[in-house]
Task: structure prediction
Amino acid sequence: MSDHPTILELELKRKGEADGEIDVHVASCAACRTELDFLVQLARDQLATVGAFEAPAGLDDEMTARAIGHAARVRAALTASAAAGGRRRLARVAPWAAAAAVVLVGAAGVLWRGGLGSSGPAAKAPAGIGRVDDVNRDGRVDVLDAFALARAVDAGDRRSEWDVNRDGAVDRGDVDAVALAAVSLGGGGR
Amino acid sequence: MRRRALPTLAMVAALVASVGGAPARADDTAPAKARFRTVAIELEVGDRGLAAYQVELVVRAGDASIVGVEGGAAAGFTAPPYYDPAALYAGRIVLAAFNTKASLKKGRHRVAVVHVREFGSSPSYTVEVVAAAAADGVRVRVRAFLVDAKGVKP
Result:
């Protein structure tokens, strides 16, 4: 864990609102001073680009509420991401096992499709197949998966296979994780 | 130390994106003036009603980026929808929301409002429905529309 202030704390420092310990740290840390200088320059550039403006009353409270909500969503996304990372680590630990599985699944597919003599086109699996967040098993991850899971959770149906964020419980956190996967620009249902 | 930092989260993000994320322009000595406006997403709901939706908004032309998202005016859909924070300050965003307790009846409903920052002459946007479902979870078809504050297509 780093002892350096976060960028938000450095921003407070730039605005003269930081705690004393941040002042002390920055005074003795070249890296943080460099980052602080960057923020100062950024603020100047910002001013030059869009000009000064007066924040409306209540903006601070609204932003706080939004930031807290946003942080909760990001936390859920990170949890989901960590779960996916766990799967990736498994693949690194046992690449031979993954290769063997591919061979076995491929062989099973050939047999299932009618043996080696079959000449039909290979079926392409949809992106969502096999994903734990593809709750409705339609081959894609979208809001319908989150909605299906939310309805199930509301109805008391909490199958362990739906523990998407792997926290040991099937609850709204899993619903959020599925919804965030659905809207993720890096994957999901699109 | 972190508690006081929260209110400035969005400010810092805006600051970084306004400068660092601003699209490059040929003449940096005379940057175009930024405009901020809102684009509302409305859904035309059919007979079965609507309890869940997912749409994709894309900046099709012009110099614009998405800088914020809020909920709509339709009952049950006033909270901000789900979105990928990485979409902020970019030209594409996927929005999704659902409500297990309330659904929208037949008609046109405003479900989300997107804040955009624009430079230069009028950028254009498109919105596409990715998925939608009625209260029973059955997939339904809805049409999506973009309207500005005056109720016309941006």
